[in-house]
């Protein structure tokens, strides 16, 4: 049993180290990133994912690939990270910016309330997915995500 715990910890440590290296390269080569996140809402709850290399819970999402639209990015990332197959319309909630390690991110956040769940295809990056009440987000949810959820609850999107 201890071996499997050690393996999980070493896997997470390796991915966190790789992420630091990636952040350095990204800030140098691609100082501005564009991406999308998807707020998946069902029954007054939001589906969040837990990354192997980041603390806390997040909306599924990531960077836009060459030739993709922001809507395509949101759908792809939701499927890869959360196993969510979008069956309804996506609504733009907002466009947000952030800066980390000398890299500026510009992220479109969409909302979807109609989706089906399958097993996620991403087996390394994501270590968990769970629904959380919009009224009771996990304590490790960032201030930015809390702001987006509050915006949604006030009729945004």
Shape: globular
Q: Please describe the biggest sheet, giving its number of strands, its sense, and whether it closes into a barrel.
A: 7 strands, mixed
Structural class: alpha+beta
N-to-C SSE series?
HEEEEHEEEEEH
Strand content: 35-45%
Helical fraction? 25-40%
Distance between the termini: 46 Å
Characteristic terms for this protein:
alpha+beta; globular; two-stranded antiparallel sheet; single chain; 157 residues; 7-stranded mixed beta sheet
In short:
This protein has 157 residues and is an alpha+beta fold.
Could you please describe the fold and organization of this structure?
It is built from three helices and nine strands, in the order αββββαβββββα. The protein has helices at 2-29, 70-82, 143-153; strands at residues 32-42, 45-51, 57-58, 61-63, 84-86, 91-100, 103-112, 115-117, 126-133. The strands form two sheets. Strands 1, 2, 3, 4, 6, 7 and 9 form a seven-stranded mixed β-sheet that branches. It starts with a helix and ends with a helix.
Give the SSE layout:
Blueprint: H1 2-29, E1 32-42, E2 45-51, E3 57-58, E4 61-63, H2 70-82, E5 84-86, E6 91-100, E7 103-112, E8 115-117, E9 126-133, H3 143-153
Parallel strand pairs: 1-7
Antiparallel strand pairs: 1-2, 1-4, 2-3, 2-9, 5-8, 6-7
């Amino acid at each position: 049993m201890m071996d499997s715990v050690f393996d999980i910890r070493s896997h997470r440590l390796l991915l966190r180290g790789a992420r630091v290296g990636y952040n350095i390269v990204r800030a140098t080569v691609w100082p501005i990133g564009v991406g999308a996140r998807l707020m998946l809402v069902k029954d007054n709850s939001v589906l969040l994912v837990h990354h192997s290399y980041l603390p806390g819970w997040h909306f599924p999402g990531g960077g836009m690939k060459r030739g993709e639209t922001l809507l395509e990015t949101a759908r792809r990332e939701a499927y890869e990270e959360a196993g969510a197959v979008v069956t309804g319309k996506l609504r733009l909630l907002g466009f947000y910016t952030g800066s980390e390690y000398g890299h500026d991110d510009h992220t479109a956040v969409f909302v979807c309330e109609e989706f089906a769940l399958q097993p996620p295809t991403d087996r390394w990056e994501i270590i968990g997915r769970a629904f959380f009440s919009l009224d009771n987000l996990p304590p490790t949810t960032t201030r930015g995500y809390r702001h987006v959820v509050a915006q949604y609850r006030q009729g945004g999107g």
